[in-house]
Design goal:
With 105 residues, this protein is mainly α. The protein contains 5 helices and 2 strands, in the order H-E-H-H-E-H-H. Strands 1-2 form a two-stranded parallel sheet. The longest helix has 11 residues. It is globular. The structure holds a DNA duplex (13 and 13 nucleotides).
Amino acid sequence: MSNFHQRVYEAVKRIPKGKVCTYGCIALMAGSPKASRVVGYALHHNPDPKNIPCHRVVNRQGRLAPSFAFGGAEIQKQLLEYEGVKVSDDGIVDLNIYMDWIKFN
DNA sequence: TATTTGACGATTT
DNA sequence: CAAATCGCCAAAT
């Protein structure tokens, strides 16, 4: 298994409950700031759905991935709200609020 | 080894 | 504001 995917998985697992992270951010933590695409690719494989909260991962706009297909954007929205994340009707989250945990990493 | 592809990002039209 | 385009990187075939 490639070290890169491994890094991505660990990074996603590190996301605190009630917080979210962007693909680019995970890519940055994984060691490649530009590999945001690969992050999505890795999560798409999702070898460990029970430990990998993909619903906490959103795109740069704080918007739920349009091509998201793990059950529908509504599901992700509900999951995030259940964890205390405010989600707009369009499925937009406040990155300014939920990205602040990153500076502690 | 080379080509294709994809849960993205940022910029331009 | 929405669609199109280019750039980026690694995995899959």
